[in-house]
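Technical note accompanying the year-one report. For the benefit of new consortium partners, we illustrate the data format agreed upon in the data management plan: each record pairs a sequence with a structure-token string. No post-processing was applied to the example shown here.
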Amino acid sequence: MKESEQFTLKALNGLVRDRLKAAFPDTLMLIAEISELSVNRNGHCYMELIEKEVDSDSIIARARAIIWSYTYRVLKPYFEHAAGLELQSGLKVLLTVQVEFHEAYGYSLIVKDIDPSYTLGEWALRKREVVLRLEKEGMLEMNRTLPMPMVPRSVAIISSPTAAGYGDFMHHLNENELGIHYYTRLFPASMQGADTERSVIDALEQINQCTRLFDVVVIIRGGGAQAELNAFNSYLLGLHVAQFPLPVLSGIGHERDETVVDMVAWQGFKTPTAVADFLMAQSGNFIALLDGYANRLRDLASGGLHQSQEKLLRFSRTFSPRVVRFLGEKRMGLQQSGARLRHVVARGYERERSRMEGFALKNNLLRPEHILQRGYSLTLCRGRIVTSASGLEKGARLTTLMRDGKVDSIVDEVNIN
């Protein structure tokens, strides 16, 4: 090619096409991340592929890729069945591509195949890196150091309200045989797809504003494809769970794999109903403990009562004869004292009766009629006995009583010695 040679754009693009075709005559294996993915009405799938710098996560390469409709109809279900997840943006993939350059549309990669095992292996590698990072930062055991309440009855639930796992959990918890009532509150979150990580973190932050209302946090979802669990392997979500101030119980609902959330939670369970079983077991253990204490107290009380009864019986056998003897002695003493008291009372009564009779006799002899019969007289003034001349006045009317009658008189003169 001469330096002064001139080309039209079409001719230049044709030359580039030929050179690329010569340089890449066959398909090649390409590692890239799907940044964007769309399917047009004709069924063709258009993707933007990127490569990021490992340390900074900045994009260092970009290319357009196409899966023609006839290939896409076969490739999409194959990949999703084998990998267990939807072909979508955000996946790191291993593609079989044909390098192509079109004069009018430019450079593009025609996708012939996608290896699902590479994507799953890449996720496993990322999960291991996340676990090692959390372990290095001392986060793996952090949530597990929190004390689990003896009876966790206030439960904050992070789940999709339409998830089958959420319904199973609530039914299992509310229909418990112990009849225990649990206070539950749902914090809705998307549990699958690209929004899962951010949605669950938002729910955790909401609960963090009212932690005093809850004993534990439960993160649950129903079963699903294994690859759908990848959101629960993120470093950011694992960090939030590890540092949460309440014990976190996870029931992601997958039997075959353990997620990062399971590993940093206070305890991870395979299913949502297993989480409910754990909560009920905690309550059952507490009730059993109380029953044990009650039985122990009852046994102690019964044993103490029996010992007291035995002691009282022994005491009564020893004490009763003494009481009977003591009462007999006191009864005899009371009888003797009573006899002496009756004698003393009788003598006193006779003495007082004789004295009273003497008083009555003297009193009878001093009565006015007896005095008059002995030759004395009594002078009355206004019905009262006159005993002194000083109490009389001239003109006062007097009545003098004598043995055989009375004499009325008027005081003419009063002489006082």
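Partners are asked to follow this layout when depositing records. The longest helix spans residues 272-365.
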